[in-house]
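for the recovery benchmark. tokens below, seq after
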């Protein structure tokens, strides 16, 4: 395992078997830590009436469904608004905009198997401080202890803080050196932090390349969202609005010419590319959300565990992309 010398201020003392509850927040204790999960999605601002913009997951129908305003067949595309929700909030594209559809059994909707393959996401243990330090040492990304939501005391010395919109939003920080490298590529702080934390980017929307991603898995088989080890340069041209009072942040446009769907990797037809380039957004929310379970059984798949060889391969892919201006 490639790890750096432990940074004492990054390792928080563990509270064993302690119950934590705060007004408006939900914490789940696992191994003495509280996992905080937020509603994180690839979409635009909240809907007004039937208007909507871009949504996290491009999904396919496993079977037919008929309802008011729709007649869907097996294999048709639908778009899931809140992947963390108990049931999907689904949309179709009609008349050059997203329109919500109701009454579809969520078992008929497949949002996960698209683009799921053996290499990614890589699995990191949320209970393993060394693996979190490895992420910081090798990629300049510090994820506050997924069960604590607290950061280092001397954070100003070496970490650039991402925006705060609520305790339900995963807390990321990046090394100053990493932030300045992205800044040279056109990123501002909000664009970088939103792209890193949206949990909605699996593919480079301009090239269709599968991006290396990771998830944290807890000892109770709870799972984080799927985060990228690095983000493509085009997101640096996006426009991000952070609204702490609303408890959310939105990037629209995302700055990319969207030729491939960022979730499924599907190559888009010219008209679709124009539509998604215009409507695609990233949004994160700071309110509480349900704790996702490891429905994909990543914890049981030892081939996905992080290794030194995988980390070096990911760093080589990142370096190659930077050299090509991606």
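predicted aa per position
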């Amino acid at each position: 395992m490639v790890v750096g010398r432990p940074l004492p201020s990054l390792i928080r003392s563990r509270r064993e078997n302690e119950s934590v509850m705060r007004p408006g927040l939900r914490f789940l204790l696992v191994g003495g830590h509280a996992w905080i999960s937020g509603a994180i999605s690839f979409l635009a601002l909240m809907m007004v009436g039937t208007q909507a913009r871009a949504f996290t997951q491009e999904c396919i129908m496993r079977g037919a469904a008929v309802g008011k305003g729709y007649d869907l067949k097996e294999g048709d595309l639908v778009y899931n608004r809140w992947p963390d929700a108990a049931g999907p909030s689904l949309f179709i594209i009609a008349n050059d905009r997203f329109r919500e559809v109701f009454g579809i059994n969520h078992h008929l909707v497949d949002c996960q198997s698209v683009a799921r393959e053996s290499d990614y996401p890589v699995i990191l243990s949320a209970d393993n401080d060394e693996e979190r330090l490895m992420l910081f040492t090798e990629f300049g990304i510090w994820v506050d202890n997924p069960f604590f939501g607290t950061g280092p005391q001397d954070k100003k010395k070496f970490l650039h803080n991402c925006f705060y919109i609520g305790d339900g939003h995963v807390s990321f920080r990046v090394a100053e050196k990493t932030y300045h490298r992205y800044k040279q590529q056109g990123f501002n702080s909000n664009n970088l932090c939103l792209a890193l934390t949206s949990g909605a980017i699996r593919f480079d929307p301009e090239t269709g390349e599968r991006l290396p991603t990771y998830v944290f898995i807890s000892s109770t088989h709870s799972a984080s969202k799927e985060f990228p080890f690095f983000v493509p340069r085009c997101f640096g041209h996006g426009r991000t609005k952070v609204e702490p009072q609303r408890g959310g942040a939105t990037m629209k446009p995302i700055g990319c010419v969207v030729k491939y769907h960022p979730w499924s990797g599907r190559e888009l037809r010219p008209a679709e590319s124009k539509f998604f380039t215009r409507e695609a957004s990233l949004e994160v929310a700071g309110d509480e959300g349900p704790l996702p379970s490891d429905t994909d059984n990543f914890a049981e798949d030892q081939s996905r565990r992080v290794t030194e060889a995988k980390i070096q391969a990911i760093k080589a892919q990142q370096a190659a992309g930077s050299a090509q201006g991606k």
